[in-house]
Give the backbone structure.
Amino acid sequence: MKNICILGATGSIGVSTLDVVARHPDLYKAIALTANKNIDLLYEQCLIHHPEYVVVVDENNARTFSEKIKNSIISDIQVLSGAESLEFVATLDSVHSVMAAIVGAAGLLPSLAAAKAGKIILLANKEALVMSGDIFMQAVSESGAQLLPIDSEHNAIFQCMPAGYKSGMNAKQARRILLTASGGPFREMPVGDMVNVTPDQAVAHPNWDMGRKISVDSATMMNKGLEMIEACILFAMTPDQIQVVIHPQSIIHSMVDYVDGTVLAQMGNPDMRVPIAYSMAWPERFDSGVEPLNIFDVRRMDFEEPNLERFPCLRLAYEAINKGGIMPTVLNAANEIAVDAFLNEKVRFTDIPVIIERCMSKFEVKPAKTLAIVLEADEHARVISKQIIAELNQ
Ligand code: NAD
Ligand code: MG
């Protein structure tokens, strides 16, 4: 029996992970669940999965939740609170694998703690890797942790890598990655109309059902920018070896182009339970609950080059990784602040890349050698981005 700790259990990835866990009660036990605020869903999950530990990061919600658990039939669950408790449950001796599915920079410290503790890390939290690339990969290699990508594209690439491949290795025979993108909801909208996009329109993704932040990232294509950086780190490749390909049907989840001219693609229905089940069963496979792909329903697959004028966030991501050092951290922090402001109707959709570009221009490149340097750049970029938003609203 393998014990899994799910960081971000109440999110879209967390819910899909618990769905897969429930299909394999003989193989997996959800031993620890964490959430920020959604204690109603967390309570339902506890009734079904009966974990040993629960972390509710928000202290007020944790108190309410703790009372509710005490008076229930699952009163033996230990309820913890605070961000430090995330690291505690992610590194428990009894934990075999950690699903890192907190959204944004908030997931960095617990994901890194799991890496240092040598766990099997199922990494959905791309922002953590973008922020701390070298530091994260070094922690993985020093502890002997196993890093399995959950992002559907990176999971697809991992599946197309040579036998015995481990994250962080450079597969010399692979010359290029074709990173697919759906193009999001605004792929065909006239560029001039994008200024009026509302949060509800931006989170309505055509193919994938995801959390609000990543849905906006998909609409601006910053998601693909973060994923391009994520791919450079996970597969030890340079940015010019990663070609973004718009593939609106989302059936191919990415491809690897080999030196002999072979291109390997991984396909499937767009459902995150596929990469989740792959990583949980790895190196075997098991049922994910996803319907078999009906290739006759697919009928055709299209491929286009992305337009960087329509999607300036993608251009900014290439700029950040090419500059290197703390720039990807700055890009990510500015994006988190800008997206949050957009979702709260404080700025327009088209302000998002403006805020990020102005924020990046305020920073000198310096090496991201230590975690302290990364966290400082993250904090500083958040302050600057908020100032830029205030200026925009004057
Ligand atoms: P979501 O918004 O649905 O869920 C986020 C989870 O993180 C929730 O459980 C929430 O309680 C928790 N959380 C939020 N803020 C927190 C904080 N400050 N401290 C602790 N916990 C906090 O997000 P999601 O769509 O499930 O995405 C999670 C991660 O997976 C993101 O990094 C995203 O980029 C990545 N990802 C998601 C998908 C997808 O299909 N949803 C696909 C690929 C990658
Ligand atoms: Mg993805």
Remarks:
- The two ends are 58 Å apart (CA to CA).
- The mean pLDDT is 97.
- The chain has 16 helices and eleven strands.
